[in-house]
Amino acid sequence: MSLAESRTSASRWLSAPGDTVGRVRRYLSDDDDSARWDGFPFREGDIVISTRSKSGTTWVQMICALLIFGSPDLPAPLPQLSPWIDHTVEPVADVLARLEAQQHRRFVKTHTPLDGIPVDDRATYLVVARHPLDMALSLYHQGDNIDRERMAELTGVPARVSAPRPSAHDWLVAWTSRSSSALESPDSLDGVLHHLTDAWQRDAANVVLVHYADLLADLSGQMRRLAARLGLEVNPVRWPALVEAATFARMQDRAPDLAPNALGVLKDTSRFFRSGTSGGGSALLSPDERAAYDAKVRAAAPPDLVAWLHR
Does 194 participate in catalysis according to the annotation? Predict the structure, then answer.
């Protein structure tokens, strides 16, 4: 099937295999395919980290690694310990083989909403949220750090001819105003709100929402919260070192081992961890532009989620 034909079929519903709940949608892009989850062999205690791009994915992966191994010294680079299931740069059989060989508690990454992957009672799903404007601004800057030729080599999808990039302001305004479905563009504003609304409205004990702003405000407290939700006990003596290892500065220092760049898709791993702050997206918009953004968000997501997401 060609890529165009695959995209045409992307909205079809796929049967969820094995001991899974419900049915799942297929999300497909040039370098991601949620169908790679089909038949995923879950184990008791698996952790699935589900986020939109640039919303704190690597941060929560690192927190899980620190809680599981109980030490800042990880046994392997983070992308090997916590693979990205949907990413098509590597054959899925190779990814699953590495996971099958792991003896520690497994924690995997996905940029697919929960309605696009199997939801299994044996797993805990951590859905990470960030203020959408900050997420989008980070995504804009990340675009300059992707090696498109390397991506094309790995995925077999020809690199697109890139037009000159607009300014961050103009790109962000276009991002806030563009209408597109979550299936068409998962990293659009509509896609972000769909991803979070889907998780927010699930009445499931094994779905845990994590807010980027909470990690910034109280990293130690949020790590303790996650440890409790995951049933992980940590030696109190080691706790200060684990929290320090999860700070933005320490993660930035360890970028070569932590950034998702096992196959060389980033031009510079140090640029992956850009600023680790909040508020930059809102600061770029005028009052009228921000009002238009607010109106669109209020129309697309539940009021309680909107309040939680933007607090």
Answer: no
